[in-house]
Write a structure and sequence with these properties.
The complex is a heterodimer of chains A (about 110) and B (about 120). Chain A is mainly β and about 110 residues long. Chain A is about 0% helix and about 60% strand. In chain A, the strands form two sheets. In chain A, strands 2, 4, 5, 6, 9, 10 and 11 form a seven-stranded mixed sheet that branches. In chain B, the strands form three sheets. In chain B, strands 2, 5, 6, 10, 11 and 12 form a six-stranded mixed sheet that branches. Chain B is mainly β. Classes of the chains: A mainly beta (about 110), B mainly beta (about 120).
Chain lengths: ~110, ~120
């Protein structure tokens, strides 16, 4: 069966520090991968998606970046965090089909202080 | 573009009450529709889905019917439990094209069920 992992589960970082969040998927090949951010009290905002290794599409201009160094690994990064980067970051995967279901990881709670 | 509108919450109910969370959408073509649920501190889980008009998705006592004529996908449950307390998200994927399966989410509805 397929599983998706995210780490760390929680993170507290000072403004201006770098960020690296990791997501890995097991039990499937060539998945589509997604990074979402959920700010407190708000819905989900799609940040990045990837349809293959090295292929990244950005949905929202910001100081975050994403990379996909391996088929089932998706990394969210920042060189210098802002207070507004605080939120709950969710990784998801799907396989392309007529009605693709996205499966979400447990999330990372990021607090920028 | 695509959009999803959910009823504003929070929704507060007593145990065994009837639940309706309204969801309407705007999309070209024939999208697939989903309800996701997020329990406190967790990621999202698929609750149910429907892929074409008049389809009814159901799971764990929840139901939603894809109504193309009213562009709606309202979530219902006949008797809620305290354990149903969560945030519920309506979402769609545009059919075909180059959407790469990108979900468009509603803003979420917080449900709290009291004993």
């Amino acid at each position: 069966s397929q599983t998706i992992h995210q780490w760390p589960a929680t993170l507290v970082q000072p403004v201006g520090s770098p960020l690296s969040l990791e997501c890995t998927v097991e039990g499937t090949s060539n998945p589509n991968l997604y990074w979402y951010r959920q700010a407190a009290g708000r819905g989900l905002q799609l940040l990045f998606y990837s349809v293959g290794i090295g292929q990244i599409s950005s949905e929202v201009p910001q100081n975050l970046s994403a990379s996909r160094p391996q088929d089932r690994q998706f990394i969210l990064s920042s060189k210098k965090l802002l207070l507004s980067d605080s939120g709950f970051y969710l990784c998801a995967w799907s396989v392309l089909s007529a009605a693709p279901v996205q499966y979400f990881g447990p999330g990372t709670r990021l607090t920028v202080t | 573009g695509n959009s999803v509108t959910q009823m504003e919450g929070p929704v507060t109910l007593s145990e065994e009450a009837f639940l309706t969370i309204n969801c309407t959408y705007t999309a070209t073509g024939y999208p697939s529709l989903f309800w996701y649920v997020q329990y406190p501190g967790e990621g999202l889980q698929l609750l149910l889905k429907a892929t074409k008009a008049d389809d009814k998705g159901s799971n764990k006592g929840f139901e939603a019917t894809y109504r193309k004529e009213t562009t709606s996908f309202h979530l219902e449950k006949g008797s809620v439990q305290v354990s149903d307390s969560a945030v519920y998200f309506c979402a769609l994927i545009r059919a075909g094209g180059t959407s790469y399966g990108k979900l468009t989410f509603g803003q979420g509805t917080i449900l709290t069920v009291h004993p």
